Amino acid sequence: MNSVTPHIAAERSDPEASRVADALGRHGYHVIHEAIAPSLVAALAEDLAPWFEATPRSVGPFYGPNTRRFHGLLRRSPHMAAFVMAPVVLGAVQAILGPHCDLVQLNLTQAIEILPGGDPQPPHRDQDMWPLHVPGVEYLVNVMWPLGPYSAENGATMVWPDSHLRQDEIVLPPEEAIAIAMEPGAALLFLGSTLHAGGANRTATPRRGMIVSYSLGGLKPYELPWLAYPPEIARGFSPELAALAGYRAHRPNLGTFEGRCPSSMLSPDMSVALGAVDSLRPEQEELIALYRSGALDFPSASAMADR
After folding, report:
1. What are the two backbone dihedrals, phi and then psi, of residue 4, each rounded to the nearest 5 degrees?
2. Which domain holds residue 204?
3. Which of 89, 205, 233, 301 lies 20 to 30 angstroms, CA to CA, from 136?
4. What distance in Å separates the CA atoms of residue 129 and residue 22, rounded to the nearest whole number?
5. Domain count, the chain
């Protein structure tokens, strides 16, 4: 892989992706009922089944002791790449997040099993993992993929429609929430600013699914990608997937290794000494060039004092 940092391979002009992005902007969530082939879901579910069985129950009041959760799904199944790189999903993600960052990144992949019994998850907005918020900017897009049928009875994700427009309200009335019923092959997209929660499983069967989330590339992601997918794993990814999973710099010079784009970590010969290489946005390079040419005007001391 070369050191050029590829962008997400998705057509922004795709009409279906634009329709999904528009729905997300209006209501804070949207369901794509035929997002991927059910046969792929079945294959992924089979790969993840042993991990569900081996994973202990979660600890803490947020995750809840009636759940099992594990991460790093791209290294646990070769089928995961198709979900992470689903074109319509990526197109919608790019439309929502792309205007506010240089590159979009994979924030996490998490498998979730809600066991029978227990309480529903506390309502929350996932953007709150980052303490500073810029009005009008979305930080995150979540995608919930069911590995089996989701229903109101077995713990389907609860969403408060239009709650992304009411961010000054910490909680909203429970009767305003809706349970998102889905079949395998569907995908629920919702914004990081959308109030949501995992439901309570009142059946006798565990409810399994997974969430893939994407965030602004300049933020620290939930899941540290170089630990989840070290170079010996990421070398098996496509260049686009490796870039999405953290092996690319976000201009200006964020997330580098030895001062270079981290795609250099995927080189077959890491014994070669590497020199630092800038990764700047065009306007930053232009500003530096203007400064070095003497073309920039500097305010005088008196002018600064008048401000």
Report:
1. -70, 135
2. 15-244
3. 89
4. 25
5. 1
Instruction: Output the pTM of the full model.
Output: 0.86
In terms of Cα–Cα distance, which of 239, 238, 181, 233 is closest to 207?
181
Whether 280 is in a domain gets the answer no
Is residue 264 situated within a structural domain? no
CATH code for the domain in which residue 240 is found: 2.60.120.620
Q: Tell me, yes or no, whether 51 lies in a domain.
A: yes
Query: Quick one: tokens of 47?
Result: 């790969």
CA 214 vs CA 104, 191, 219, 256: distances in Å: 7, 10, 11, 19
**Residue 152 confidence (pLDDT):** 96
Which residues on adjacent β-strands are paired with residue 254?
250
- pLDDT tens, 60-90? 988 889 999 999 999 999 999 999 999 999 9
